[in-house]
Amino acid sequence: MTKVDYDIIVVGCGAAGTSAALAAAEEAKAQNLDIKIAILERASFEERGGNTRWTAAYMRMENIDNPAPNFIEDMLKFSDYYADEQYIRILHENAGSTLRWVESKGVDFDFLPTMFLTASKPRLLPVGGGRAIVDTLSLRARALGVEIIYETTAWDLVLDDSGNVKGLKVRIAEGETLTISTNAVILAAGGFQGSHEMMAQYIGRHAHKIPTVAEGGLFNKGEAIRMALRIGAKGQGQFDAFHAETVDPRSKREEAGVMMYPYGILVNQQGERFVDEGETTIDEQYEAVARKIFYECEGHIAYMISDQKMYDIPGHEEALQTEVPPIVADTIEELSKALDIPIEKLSKTVEGFNEACPTGEFLFNQKDGLAATEISPPKSNWSIPINKGPFIAYPIICCNVFTNGGLATDTNGRVLSGDNHPIPGLYAAGETSGLYYGKYPGGTSVLRCLVFGKRAGEHAVNLITSQQKAYL
């Protein structure tokens, strides 16, 4: 075989990239192979890890060994059955064993408090969030000889005459371009939410106004997807959609979610309600609400209106991940002025809502059936009057957690061509690979990063083994 700089190059240092590199190093050690593996990361050491570094990394798991009930069915249904069923079944089958593998490296998992006071599915979390995954797996990978090269951006693939991946063009911090030779490339560099150009191209007009939910998303500029598409890779996932979250625009925190609005009302800049705030549990509706705010509300902003009863709800602090205090006023009229909302409109909206609220037992942690039906739109649950001042408001905008469009892969992470054939030596995992259509099934993104990152890393080693045998 031709001598290479690295046998395997992983692009990206998040959950998918670190799991791929570590799994490859472990597989090589198990086969007593002397292979060189590198992770290329465009960020600095302090900022490494892309989205994973900043996320709580919710996992849609009943416990560490078993996915939540109806896992496969929900993922298929939410995608209107466009998602790859075989991929989802492999994810379901390998979720527990992969998390046990991550746990064996030193990451603990627990059912910690989440932003979702009402949830239809359980959420398992790594203690320390996504950062614990990146730090732990990268440390283990380095101990096995994996080299991590920071402030280096991959921007193009190099193929041999037979169409096999043989190299990668990278740009280092000073701007110089180098070509690194390799036998396999695993693309794990996230989506394209950090690229205004690609956001405009695929998401559409004003997409540049959608901020990323965390700083890590700004490093996800889509080069990994583009370089594969240029050599004939097949796209997959809904390119004109992204996973959205309701966030306080004043906050400087990552993922500053505002998830208390089901217990109040949401109004637009005209002081009018525009959505059923209590349609279903918060974990199943916040994405649709965020999209509605961006696409239908003037200025792409809405306001949660509530009162002092909000502070009586157990766990309300978890559902308000912003560090910025609410806007407070003694009267609705004063609150209107503070928000620059027409006084008559907001007053009428709140009065109409209060009159429509039924009597009955308020239950914050489940759908309680307290429906306000005599207003439009109706509110299906948690309809309690807003009448205990001082009154409060939180501004809410739509943030981009990750983009849905990416590369088509098989269940081993091999990137597929437009004719559904694997491109030799090219893999993708995490948000660089496309999966989601329609509604995002919460708690599955980091999980699939780990499962398919690990599978891609292991398969890449076996590819190199087969190449070595053929050469001999």
Brief descriptors of the model:
19% strand; alpha+beta; 472 residues; 11 helices; 5-stranded antiparallel β-sheet; 8-stranded mixed β-sheet
Explain this structure to me?
Helix 1 packs parallel to helix 11. The protein has 472 residues and is an alpha+beta fold. Strand 1, helix 1 (15-30) and strand 2 (37-41) form a beta-alpha-beta unit. It has helices spanning 15-30, 50-54, 71-78, 85-104, 129-143, 196-203, 223-230, 282-296, 332-339, 343-356, 445-471, and strands at 6-11, 37-41, 109-110, 125-126, 147-150, 152-159, 165-172, 177-187, 235-236, 242-247, 265-267, 302-306, 327-329, 391-403, 406-407, 414-416, 422-428.
Strand-residue proportion: 15-25%
Element pattern in H and E: EHEHHHEEHEEEEHHEEEHEEHHEEEEH
Q: Could you say which overall geometry the principal axes of the C-alpha atoms support?
A: elongated
- Number of helical stretches of at least 4 residues: 11
Give the arrangement of secondary structure elements.
Layout: E1 6-11, H1 15-30, E2 37-41, H2 50-54, H3 71-78, H4 85-104, E3 109-110, E4 125-126, H5 129-143, E5 147-150, E6 152-159, E7 165-172, E8 177-187, H6 196-203, H7 223-230, E9 235-236, E10 242-247, E11 265-267, H8 282-296, E12 302-306, E13 327-329, H9 332-339, H10 343-356, E14 391-403, E15 406-407, E16 414-416, E17 422-428, H11 445-471
Parallel strand pairs: 1-2, 1-8, 2-5, 8-17
Antiparallel strand pairs: 3-4, 6-7, 7-8, 9-15, 10-14, 11-12, 12-14, 13-14, 16-17
Helix pairs in contact: 1-5, 1-11, 3-4, 4-11, 9-10
